[in-house]
Amino acid sequence: MISIKDSVHDHIEVDGVAEALLDTPIVQRLRRIRQLGTVSYVYPSANHTRFEHSLGVYHLADRALSNLGIEGTNAARIRAAALLHDTGHGPYSHNLEDLVYRQTGRYHDEIDDLLTEGEVADVLRDHGLSPSAVADLVRGDGKYGQLVSGELDVDRMDYLVRDAHHTGVPYGTIDTGRLVRELDFTEGELVLGEGNVQTGESLLLARALMNPTVYSHHVARISKAMLRRAAEGLLRADATDAWELRRMDDDDLRVALRQCGETAEYARRLDTRDLYKRAVWAEYDVVDDELIDADHDTIREYEREVAAEAGVDAEQVVLDVPSRPDIPESTSRVVVNGQVRRLRDQSTLVKAVMRVQKDQWRLGVYAPRDVTEQVGHAAESVLGLDLDALVSDIRGSRTATLDEFEEARDE
Amino acid sequence: MISIKDSVHDHIEVDGVAEALLDTPIVQRLRRIRQLGTVSYVYPSANHTRFEHSLGVYHLADRALSNLGIEGTNAARIRAAALLHDTGHGPYSHNLEDLVYRQTGRYHDEIDDLLTEGEVADVLRDHGLSPSAVADLVRGDGKYGQLVSGELDVDRMDYLVRDAHHTGVPYGTIDTGRLVRELDFTEGELVLGEGNVQTGESLLLARALMNPTVYSHHVARISKAMLRRAAEGLLRADATDAWELRRMDDDDLRVALRQCGETAEYARRLDTRDLYKRAVWAEYDVVDDELIDADHDTIREYEREVAAEAGVDAEQVVLDVPSRPDIPESTSRVVVNGQVRRLRDQSTLVKAVMRVQKDQWRLGVYAPRDVTEQVGHAAESVLGLDLDALVSDIRGSRTATLDEFEEARDE
Amino acid sequence: MISIKDSVHDHIEVDGVAEALLDTPIVQRLRRIRQLGTVSYVYPSANHTRFEHSLGVYHLADRALSNLGIEGTNAARIRAAALLHDTGHGPYSHNLEDLVYRQTGRYHDEIDDLLTEGEVADVLRDHGLSPSAVADLVRGDGKYGQLVSGELDVDRMDYLVRDAHHTGVPYGTIDTGRLVRELDFTEGELVLGEGNVQTGESLLLARALMNPTVYSHHVARISKAMLRRAAEGLLRADATDAWELRRMDDDDLRVALRQCGETAEYARRLDTRDLYKRAVWAEYDVVDDELIDADHDTIREYEREVAAEAGVDAEQVVLDVPSRPDIPESTSRVVVNGQVRRLRDQSTLVKAVMRVQKDQWRLGVYAPRDVTEQVGHAAESVLGLDLDALVSDIRGSRTATLDEFEEARDE
Amino acid sequence: MISIKDSVHDHIEVDGVAEALLDTPIVQRLRRIRQLGTVSYVYPSANHTRFEHSLGVYHLADRALSNLGIEGTNAARIRAAALLHDTGHGPYSHNLEDLVYRQTGRYHDEIDDLLTEGEVADVLRDHGLSPSAVADLVRGDGKYGQLVSGELDVDRMDYLVRDAHHTGVPYGTIDTGRLVRELDFTEGELVLGEGNVQTGESLLLARALMNPTVYSHHVARISKAMLRRAAEGLLRADATDAWELRRMDDDDLRVALRQCGETAEYARRLDTRDLYKRAVWAEYDVVDDELIDADHDTIREYEREVAAEAGVDAEQVVLDVPSRPDIPESTSRVVVNGQVRRLRDQSTLVKAVMRVQKDQWRLGVYAPRDVTEQVGHAAESVLGLDLDALVSDIRGSRTATLDEFEEARDE
């Protein structure tokens, strides 16, 4: 058994199969994948990695298992899955997921390739565990998969407190001790035990406050969109392919962008924080359903149209359309007076949080600072947006009010 | 200038009139008034006092003034009011307020007596300040009174983080730095500046989560209700009068209860945490409006009736009816797109929090453990409550689900 | 099993004999004994109690036992002893120990009376534990007594972090997780395992820094000396006796001082922080051995002489002579290259800390502010001190340089 | 003015010349230089960067200036120097300093090139500041240079608390508020004001405890030595030159090592934490002075000899000889009884810390795990070390006892 010092959970004791997995290359690679991707452009302290997060998830899983009295092979599988749950991520965490998926047809589930062959599979088998059973848990399948990837999984418990610790934004400070202690299985469902409506609410509210302040801060979204566009440039220039791209670490990607002529300008902008600005920042109800559901090629087509209309280069317009608002934790189950209920049916606050997701949703069009005005007008026209005003007009009434800490000279 | 080390704000620098006020007996007395009254029966670390809280409020006021650019006499008055704002509290903080008010006809506003005569008035005048102007600020009057006692006052900013620090419950961890920095005056109203809907929301959500978990935890309410009944016993026995009672500190009250024969049993119970238990714990919609609005004498009458019906001594029944749900922060103002708006009109979350207050409201009837069942039945009948089940019946469906950390073997 | 939320260790789970002991009056009394006595005159946030500390000690003992693999009766006894270890304290913690001892002949070890009869003894026996065996552990007797009261006991691990948390002084922030994990028994001695010289050093250095900054801050010493003198007044006036005094809680003592005519002036001074000031603050090497070793009656005699010489009332001179410098943790054992060694033989830092104790030692003479000068001169002469200058002469060279955070207008 | 959220100091407000400097490429590059180089192999949370540290140093400088009453051009220069003080660092912080120095003849002071020409120089001049005057401050020259780079500089105040926050090791938790408040200039020297011997001691003790636990942990030293050897390989293979190397960021270096055939094996080992182990770990007094003072070429020669003697490849032996023990803070000045004194003359503890540096000094010889034994014997013989035992012999008596948290399966 080894003991690892963690800035969030203090000492994490790792043994058995987890100890053996720690030294495998796909786990060590997580040391070089930032947990929050481009969020460090907003919160400069947010440089923590998927590696320490994975240790934290392992630790919380371990405590939950101990409270639930789960032992033996099931417990070993869950511990392994907790440590491995993020090994499938590409560089810059979620930032490039869509991109890789479009090219490879694999989304998240290359996890099978990673876990069922090679060194990790050997280690798992050496400890009497079936690699495919562990991969199932990582995907959230089965009763115990809920602990690793579900509405009440230990993944989000770790990332909320860890992201709070490293960004300095206190909203994610949940009571992980209580949450882990109150997890229970009722009729095969992972639930919070009696007396924990509020415990469940606190988890959702933490996410509801962290979301616009941290995860969807507009500067993080802009830099993420630029990074995605740059990575597409790499693929287009045949500097890499999607299969290779998804196994890069953050170092590889940064350097590849610098070394490829077609992406060097993006690299320069990202390296010097010379980011695009918002030309449009539009609320949910002024955006057509068709646009929200548009596929990748259609969005690229819109970008070209907007650029043409504005008289700028196509690379100078980035259209960023988030998926429809959703809040998976709202289906968390909690026991109330002996019956299992969904949190969203039980809690007025949770219902409100679901509505808030829609209020906070924004479509963004980004462009270099000196062309935001013409790009804004062009986008308004091409995308059929009925805006009261452009972002460039002193934060017009359809624009965001979410301008949290910016480190920032942006609109 | 002196520098005082605080466990929450680190160093607090105190000078001018505040430094002179620090040594007055009515400020020093706050060292012996617990901030959270009987909450330490639930959270044993919660022994912080009104004195350190008052220093914290002074500190946040000072920082807000500096950000707002307020100087001179107005600033000095506000600093004095911030330090003095709690000097009117009786022992055990809010626990005895109603009681003292009923007897003295003074509620909160004995503050005039305290500040406009005696040593404090002398100190204020020595520093060129009008005692009655400072008293006005403590009561929240006028433009600047909003900073000391209003929806966005620095009082609640301090107590949320301080109570979180000392209870160990993380929900109160708000971003005081940002809040204080974003305060502004627009058309004479204290508001949060542009881009701070979420900042305002975070303040309300912190209260919404701290409320049932800490401030209104049933064990805190039970012990508070017992303390109030005991204090009434002191008055009835002429062991003290309301004027004297309200100037006691916590030490005085504890010892007075022990020394008076009629209250010795309450003192024993409070000293040994041998508290009453819930016989009834009823939701808002099963309680008649008449009962919610009943005055003190009527409630005492109900208690006697319930006791008679249950065949127990009148001192063994405590009826605890909170005031109607309310959430003052919801009227906080925030600037959105250049216009001042009320937070509750702007925020879906805040509307939800207002509804939640009602969901969380509970009427309680408390009794010694061995008679909760007969007292429960009697209360159900006398008070006309339509309960699905009593608390003694395995947490029946009309009972609370708020049973947070209890230190506790209670129902 | 119950779970108690603690501001330092988060959740503390209490069960078995400890859960049953929690509700006994002598444990509940600890809620009303401040952990740091009069230190809150210097650090206003330091209002934590012996009760929460006792829970913390129980918690660390529990974790140490789990790491050491100790189970069964021995473990249950140690847990009980950890929770009970402070029940023998009088009001205001250590402040009155000497006083009570002189009168009762019992020092610390009235613990036998408390644990071997009455409710606690019954609870212990109900759980199959011998009360006298538990009392032995509290006194630090036997192999396992070292865990509860010894150089490496969990008592000091808890109080260092707890006092740091509540005072805001960071020096006590040790790594309790590592300390508890590295405890081991070698040849019947409690030691820190291989590779932990530094772990041991960190514990001593934490104490070495907390000592002058917190525990022996001159304002804490002055108020403690005044409180002791006041308590003697109570005894002299027959307002109480030593047996009763030692079972008071802080509330009782404060009120008793107010109610007794002979101590009312001390009570007023303590209630309003109108404390004596230093008239003399003398280093170790200018104080005669005879004076350092003087007994209580001799010291009272000196006080009277100084008062007479200075022409002031005897109650206006307080002579405060600490015991000789000592540092018990320095005999802590640690394993180095397979051999058990004493930390002080192994660590240059520890040797230095031992010397520092002497450097920091100070004899104090205290008096009301307006007579410090004449009392200073009188004390210099009566006590035969060869001072370069009095405290009143701009911090003369024989005076302290330890004037940490004062909240303070003192010399 | 902008406000940046920091995980250590909360809000950092940046304006004037500092705000303008923030966006320059040489400052933005610091986002990609880890503060603690290879320490994250021991403490996986330690991924914080020179960028956030530079903001922290700026912040503490700003507070110190405000306390010292320094304004105008001097203050602006100091703020600029604080923000820029680390821009001269190569990749992986201090890890490659010697290497670059040997090749370029520039050590630390390429700072002149960086600050006195190009964009930074333009920004400085635009704000009326002389670039060379700012460069002087960065080098610690002149009265005010002491604030930026001296025994009491704000640099070390920031890194101690920041490294503690991110590693989770509490020893660095100093009281920055007090330190910054107590800085003063006396006769042109930066000192701690009267009453701060302990404040100064706490700074040194924090370093004394962080040093072996964090900064010189053997796993951090091994990985640093491997990285240095790998970087030499890059130069030898002409994959880069020293001038280019020193302006790389961490990403560039990692990828360059992977892309160069001669360093690919080092890259693989570093990427997968397949690190060398200690073959020798020798105390100060068994190492010849000649060896301690050996220059780079001599050390390489020794390595080759040891490898030949052990029959292994030259790349498999790494000899790591730290410079002689030193403790710059010990010359810190503090005012005692009105006179400026050096802390080491005043404090027994500081003298002890100086001796401890020597106790903790270790010469290391590292090799792949499977050849440590033969390399150990060869090194013992070639280097003339009189060891009691090799590291491979159960932690022989001349080996370290400093094996703190390892994340680690190393000797």
Automatic annotation (TrEMBL), chains A, B, C, D:
Name of this protein? HD domain-containing protein
Record's CDD domains? HDc (cd00077)
Tell me which InterPro entries the record gives: dGTPase-like, HD/PDEase_dom, HD_assoc_2, HD_domain
Q: Which organism is it from?
A: Halomarina salina
Question: HD/PDEase domain location, by residue?
Answer: 46-169
- Pfam families documented for this protein: HD, HD_assoc_2
